[in-house]
Amino acid sequence: MKRTTLLIAAILITLAFTANSQVNDDGKNKPDTTRIRIGNKKIIIIEDKSKTGDKDVVIDADTVKEIIIEKGDTINPDHRHGKSSGREFEGHWHGFEFGPDNYVNKSAEMGGGQDNLTLNQGKSWAFYLNLLQYSIPLVKNNFGIVTGLGLEWNNYSFDNNISLVPNTKTVMTTNDTLNYSKNKFRTTYLTLPIMLEYQTSSGSDNKKFFIGAGLLCGLKLGSSTKQEWGSGNTEHELIVSDDYNLNTFRYGLTARIGYGHWGLFANYNITPLFKSSALPDNLYPLTIGIKVINF
């Protein structure tokens, strides 16, 4: 019985030694290997006594199916799933932007040269919520194409007591005797950019300098006027939704420059605000503003 026990123990020791000291075809010992499977991902850890020193290993659980890690290697905690390493190309479209609304005519006159459509600049603002973004690297991680989808809200606040007339084939206004506390022309667009962007590769996303330019297309979703005025102790409000002869589709130029999550942008529409048949001396929207939040 003792002989049998000793024989079994000897066999087990021999098998263990053989598993941990595998030999290559050239007669050299193979390094020890440990395999770990997490779902459909596999991590292979290899002990190689011929190598020394620590190295950072980046693991992206979404894209890497098999990762080889040598014993002694470390995983940088900043490279955990859900955090950006700052090494990939990521555009600067998505986020929140705002700036003063304005428009120019073909002679580049601010306000469009239309006395009845003169804007109150302090109350005319544009807001942009750029929700979706897709980045395509072209040259390493420094230069690429950026596109996506967003929403744009324009609030053109008229300086005069006028009203846009709905249900007409031309842009018509009336001079009102009411003293409006608010007199706004509001538009909403779905926006789609096609931009080329350059960005520095050093540092994380919040330490990158970027500059980009391209086309900005828009699809009109709605338009309305909103007027408020007082009569004695009574406050009145009138909202009228109409097409107002706006162009349904539009395109223009966009440019942006910044550092990290902050930047400046400028949008200029090549397509006029109104249909050419409705307003011959047309208006071209222009907004210059600030990018304050990057998703």
The spatial strand order of the largest sheet comes to 4-5-6-9-10-12-13-14
Strand runs, count? 14
Nearest-integer average pLDDT: 80
Portion in helices: under 10%
Order of helices and strands: HEEEEEEEEEEEEEE
Q: Point out poorly predicted stretches.
A: 5-23, 54-71, 73-86
Number of domains: 2
Gap from first CA to last CA: 72 Å
Largest sheet: 8 strands, antiparallel, barrel
**What portion of the residues fall into strands of 2 or more residues?**
over 45%
Question: What general form does the structure show?
Answer: elongated
* Cα gyration radius (Å): 32 Å
Q: Number of helical segments?
A: 1
The secondary-structure class comes to mainly beta
Tell me what you see in this structure.
This protein has an eight-stranded antiparallel β-barrel with strand order 4-5-6-9-10-12-13-14. Strands 1-2-3 form a three-stranded mixed beta sheet, with no helix packed on it. The chain is elongated and about 80 Å long. It has 295 residues and is mainly β. The protein has one helix at residues 2-20, and strands spanning 32-38, 41-47, 66-70, 95-104, 125-139, 143-157, 162-164, 173-175, 180-199, 209-231, 234-241, 249-259, 262-269, 284-293. A hairpin with a 3-residue loop joins strand 5 and strand 6 (143-157). It folds into two domains: 28-83, no CATH class; 95-293. Mean pLDDT is 80; it is low at 5-23, 54-71 and 73-86.
